[in-house]
Structure formats: structure tokens, C-alpha cells
Design brief:
two-stranded parallel sheet; alpha+beta; 6-stranded antiparallel β-sheet; 27% helix; 5 helices
């Protein structure tokens, strides 16, 4: 967990890698629950037997499941003291570059792109590179925006 005492301390890290999260396993149960929540039951995600004969030899996580995991990664890895709340404000860019087979372990490299003051707080632009253990390229690179209010 990377802890910042103030927003100013966080802002001083612009242009730098802020943290690398711990590894987190993506299970078939996670994939199935995401499919149920979104209604996306495409066989490549949920049909374990059929996926064995598919292009990846197993089921793979939905791209949007992988992206949605950023919220949890942030919650477990970055804390800013002295703020009353933080919110997800959106995304500038997202690319899914390789699959996440069921059972994979992921982690995120969090880079602070920049900050700008907003009424009552600060907007933060991040670059998050989601890596899969043992893979030679990222599974996703995203630029989420956060807003912290004091």
C-alpha cells in the first residue's frame, strides 16, 4: 500500500511510477459472476469444455472484467490521507492487448500521468498497465481518471 499524506504529496509524483500492486488471481468463479452480472455469457468466457478446443485452450476473462478490477487494485494499493472521498471519473484510453486465461494472476503498474485542481479537490490522470504473471506483454493498458475531494 502506497500512502500519501496529502494531495500535494501525490501530485509531486507526476510522471513517475507510484506503485506496483500485489498479484491477484482471476478465477473461473470471478468470470462466471461477471457474466451473470453483465449478461455476457459468450462461450469463450463460461463454457469450460468448449473453450478447451478454442484458441486459448481454456476460458478467458472478459476484457471489461479485467478493466473493472482496477477499482479493487487501487483500493488495495493507493491511499491518500486527508481526503473525504475519491471517485472514478472515467477513462481517457483503454487497450486490451492479450487474453487473461482463467486462473491467471494479474498485477498493475500504476503511473501518475498528471494532476489538475478541481473545485473542492484534485483530478488525477493515471496510466495503469495490467500484467499477467509469466506473459511477455500486458493484458491491458488504461488511463483512468480519479477525483479526490477534501
Amino acid at each position: 500500500m502506497k500512502t500519501f499524506e496529502t494531495l500535494a504529496e501525490l501530485a509531486a509524483c507526476a510522471g513517475q511510477e507510484v506503485t506496483v500492486t500485489d498479484w491477484y488471481a482471476v478465477t473461473q468463479q470471478h468470470i462466471d459472476q461477471f457474466a451473470d452480472a453483465t449478461g455476457d455469457h459468450q462461450w469463450i468466457h463460461v463454457d469450460v469444455e468448449r473453450a478447451k478446443a478454442g484458441p486459448f485452450g481454456t476460458t478467458i476473462a472478459h476484457g471489461y472484467l479485467t478493466l473493472s478490477m482496477l477499482a479493487g487494485f487501487f483500493d488495495r494499493s493507493v491511499k491518500v490521507k486527508g481526503v473525504r472521498m475519491g471517485i472514478n471519473y472515467g477513462l481517457n484510453k483503454v487497450r486490451f492487448m492479450s487474453p487473461v486465461p482463467a486462473g491467471s494472476r494479474l498485477r498493475v503498474r500504476v503511473h501518475l500521468l498528471g494532476t489538475e485542481p478541481i473545485e473542492g479537490g484534485m483530478q488525477i490522470a493515471w496510466q495503469c498497465t495490467i500484467e499477467r504473471e509469466g506473459a511477455d506483454k500486458p493484458v491491458c493498458v488504461a488511463e483512468p481518471l480519479s477525483r479526490y475531494y477534501v
